[in-house]
């Protein structure tokens, strides 16, 4: 049987349409949501991500600015800018694009972002709140995946969920969200022994390992929901995910494509977090 394809692009578009009214309602209260995106370095892929984020803000009527530094910038200059953005009333969300160059202390940079403007949800206080099951900002990619489950009425309670990947950006917060939703969660990585033994038990499989076509059809349980977080560029320039889509399509029950799956949802949830930040500020909490 061929799996149902989860259309992240369409879902993202529906959500973004629904944001416009919230943005205008906030603008009328003098709180047009504003996002600042900080990029350090010349990495091409990061430049594309940052441009997409800023354009997506403008498309729903939000304010957005990008601040770009050369890779060799003194980290103190970036920290000073973050302090300015923390105090800027036009800015409700601050995102520092990761990874940062090697001479940066990434933790110190993330800690410098005001907790109530941390729309990435990477500040230790927000990570802790998520771990306690009381999140304020949920990291955008796993938040987007959870939205896909919600909109697709995919019940997680009691299900076997396997996450491949243990990053702070995707794997760990994804596991916490699935735990909070009542799933039985296993977190694997590319070096897990008998990885296929784990993945074949999964009713829900989330691949966030950063290796092209790493998950093959023989690794998935028939009928499973397969979510592909990977975006890998092949030598021929084409994009592909962490899942062998063509093979897994014949075994899975539902599957996300790349592109057009999780990717558009990530930016959408960044907008959602920034709007939520502005709504909290407008409501005085
Ligand atoms: N680099 C890759 N994904 C992300 C993300 O979600 N947020 C930030 N800040 N950097 C990233």
Q: Number of helical segments?
A: 10
Helix content percent band? 40-55%
Shape: globular
Which percent range describes the beta-strand content? 15-25%
What is the chain-wise order of helices and strands?
A: EHEHEHEHHHEHEHEEEEHEH
Q: CATH superfamily assignment of the largest domain? A: NAD(P)-binding Rossmann-like Domain
Radius of gyration, in angstroms, nearest whole number: 19 Å
InterPro entries: Aminoacid_DH-like_N_sf (IPR046346), NAD(P)-bd_dom_sf (IPR036291), THF_DH/CycHdrlase (IPR000672), THF_DH/CycHdrlase_cat_dom (IPR020630), THF_DH/CycHdrlase_CS (IPR020867), THF_DH/CycHdrlase_NAD-bd_dom (IPR020631)
Subunit structure: Homodimer.
Catalytic activity: (6R)-5,10-methenyltetrahydrofolate + H2O = (6R)-10-formyltetrahydrofolate + H(+); (6R)-5,10-methylene-5,6,7,8-tetrahydrofolate + NADP(+) = (6R)-5,10-methenyltetrahydrofolate + NADPH
GO molecular function: methenyltetrahydrofolate cyclohydrolase activity; methylenetetrahydrofolate dehydrogenase (NADP+) activity
Summarize it.
By secondary structure, the protein is an alpha/beta fold.
Task: Please give a structural write-up.
The protein has 285 residues and is of the alpha/beta class. The chain has two domains: 29-117, Leucine Dehydrogenase, chain A, domain 1 (Rossmann fold), CATH 3.40.50; 140-263, Rossmann fold, CATH 3.40.50. It has ten helices and eleven strands. The strands form three sheets. A six-stranded parallel beta sheet has the order 1-11-8-7-5-6. Strands 3-2-4 form a three-stranded parallel beta sheet, with helices on both faces. It has a two-stranded antiparallel sheet with strand order 9-10. A hairpin with a 5-residue loop joins strand 9 and strand 10. Helix 1 packs parallel to helix 10, helix 2 (44-59) crosses helix 10 (262-283) and helix 6 packs across helix 10. The longest helix has 22 residues, at 262-283. The radius of gyration is 19 Å and the shape is globular. The mean pLDDT is 97. Bound molecules: guanine. Pathway: One-carbon metabolism; tetrahydrofolate interconversion. Belongs to the tetrahydrofolate dehydrogenase/cyclohydrolase family. Catalyzes the oxidation of 5,10-methylenetetrahydrofolate to 5,10-methenyltetrahydrofolate and then the hydrolysis of 5,10-methenyltetrahydrofolate to 10-formyltetrahydrofolate. It catalyses: (6R)-5,10-methenyltetrahydrofolate + H2O = (6R)-10-formyltetrahydrofolate + H(+); (6R)-5,10-methylene-5,6,7,8-tetrahydrofolate + NADP(+) = (6R)-5,10-methenyltetrahydrofolate + NADPH. Pfam families: THF_DHG_CYH, THF_DHG_CYH_C.
């Amino acid at each position: 049987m061929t799996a149902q394809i989860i259309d992240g692009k369409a879902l993202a578009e529906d959500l973004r349409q629904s944001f416009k009214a919230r943005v205008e309602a906030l603008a009328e209260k003098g709180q047009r949501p504003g996002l600042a995106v900080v990029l350090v370095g010349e990495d091409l892929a990061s430049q594309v991500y940052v441009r997409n984020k800023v354009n997506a803000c403008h498309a729903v009527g939000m304010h957005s600015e990008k601040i770009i530094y050369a890779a060799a910038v003194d980290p103190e200059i970036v920290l000073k800018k973050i302090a300015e953005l923390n105090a800027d009333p036009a800015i409700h969300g601050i995102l520092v694009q990761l990874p940062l160059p090697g001479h940066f202390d990434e933790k110190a940079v993330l800690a410098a972002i005001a907790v109530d403007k941390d729309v990435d949800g990477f500040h230790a206080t927000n990570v802790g709140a998520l771990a306690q099951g009381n999140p304020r900002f949920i990291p955008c990619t796993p938040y987007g995946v959870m939205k896909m489950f919600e909109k697709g009425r995919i019940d997680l309670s009691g299900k076997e969920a396997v996450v491949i990947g243990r990053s702070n950006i995707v794997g760990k917060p994804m596991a916490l969200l699935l735990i909070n939703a009542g799933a039985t969660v296993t977190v694997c990585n590319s070096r897990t022994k008998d990885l296929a033994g784990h993945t074949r038990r999964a009713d829900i499989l989330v691949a966030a390992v950063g290796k092209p076509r790493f998950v093959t059809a023989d690794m998935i349980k028939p009928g499973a929901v397969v979510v592909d977080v990977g975006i890998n560029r092949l030598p021929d320039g084409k994009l592909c995910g962490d899942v062998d889509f063509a093979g897994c399509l014949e075994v899975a029950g539902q599957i996300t494509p790349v592109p057009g799956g999780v990717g558009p949802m990530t930016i959408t949830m960044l907008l959602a977090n920034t709007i939520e930040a502005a709504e909290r500020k407008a409501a005085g909490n």
